Amino acid sequence: MFSRLNQLVRHLSRPLPNYSHTSAAAVGKPPVLSNNIMTSSIAATATTPNERNKKLIQTAGCIIIGDEVLGGKTVDTNSSYFAKFCFALGINLKRIEVIADDEEEIAETTRRMSKNYDFVVTSGGIGPTHDDITYQSISKAFNLKLELHEPSFERMKRLSRPHRSQPNFSWDKPSPDLDAKLRMVYLPYDKSRSWDSQVTFVDDNMWVPVSVVNGNVHILPGVPSLFRQLLDGLKPNITPRLADPTGAGIYRILISTPKAESAIAAFLTELSHKAEPRGVKVGSYPRWGKSRNTVTLVGTDKEFMESLVSEVEKGVSGKRVQVEDEVDTDGEEQGSQ
Q: Which tens digit of pLDDT belongs to each residue from 162-177?
């Protein structure tokens, strides 16, 4: 675990153009942010950050931040993990966006998602280098300043170790390396609220904080192992705010059919008219080059969904399965649509 944490503090050699360098003697002074984006007031939103922080969680949005994802260098797996996380808890994930390391894009996307959805996560852009601009961009989005979060800094000093390429590093001696590390513990701060409502730690063995901005935007690292660990650690905070506090989640039923999609389209249309008023979505998914296609029922009303199974099996000449390829026949192919 420590080796993964150290990846966040490994690349520490370059000056930071968006910050005034902070010496250990002046560690309480915030970095200086650039002023090249326009921000809009959050007063137009319907609720306050404190109200959002306690609101029932029904919808979610995910923002993946990184030029390396858009450029194909890094394959994003965090959005997929978040989708499964939401599905398991019964949260309706409404939107996933992948955006560049660009202040204006990060600010606009974060403001919009915070307004539209109950629970928002961001992934990426909170490391020590010049292109890690998520904290400062989200601060700008909500007219906040970055402030040193002392508990995060103390945990960093206690739980992380300098890389072997930094044999002379000191927590007490001003240096570019220290400035780079401090970049990761200057967090967006709303002076009208306590730090406790804006920062949470989910693991006693990790120094990495989860910064919570505007009551519902949770800023997470892009490193997949850290993203997963911190997201899972948020679950105890989220579960009491779900429509179903037991976290029963959403159910999915799979029906495997040998028929082409066009052959069952009329039946599925009628079925959707019956199911959707009860909150159950009917889906059809072609499996190119396979002998069978898949029909799905997705929703939270398990009893109603179960009552539909025999009707669907008959309507599509299919069979309920646990995995899509359960009843595939080797060597048999058909046109999926």
A: 899 999 999 999 999 9
- Alpha-carbon distance of 122 to 217, in angstroms, equals 7
Contact 254, 294 (CB under 8 A): yes
Q: How far apart are CA 274 and CA 252, in angstroms?
A: 17
Reported as type and span, the H/E element at residue 254 is strand 251-257
Residues with Cβ within 8 Å of 194's Cβ and at least 6 positions away in sequence, in order, are none
**pLDDT tens figures, 284-306:** 999 988 889 999 999 989 999 99
Q: Can you give the pTM of this predicted structure?
A: 0.78
Neighbours of 171 (CB within 10 A): 13
Asked if residues 63 and 116 have their Cβ atoms less than 8 Å apart, the reply is: no
* CA nearest to 135, candidates 46, 16, 53: 16
Q: How far is 206 from 184, CA to CA, in rounded Å?
A: 14
Tokens encoding 41: 């007031």
Buried b (16+ CB within 10 A) or exposed e, 241-253: bbeeeeeebbbeb
Q: Helices (H), strands (E): how many in the chain? A: 12, 12
> Are 173 and 22 spatial neighbours (Cβ–Cβ below 8 Å)?
no
In degrees, rounded to 5, the angle at the alpha carbon of residue 145 between the alpha carbons of residues 143 and 149 is 140
128 neighbors 93 (Cβ within 8 angstroms): no
Q: Give the contacts of 297 (CB within 8 A, at least 6 positions apart).
A: 251, 252, 253, 255, 275, 280, 281, 282, 283, 305, 308, 309, 312
CA dihedral sign, ordered 100, 102, 106, 108: negative
335 three-state secondary structure: coil
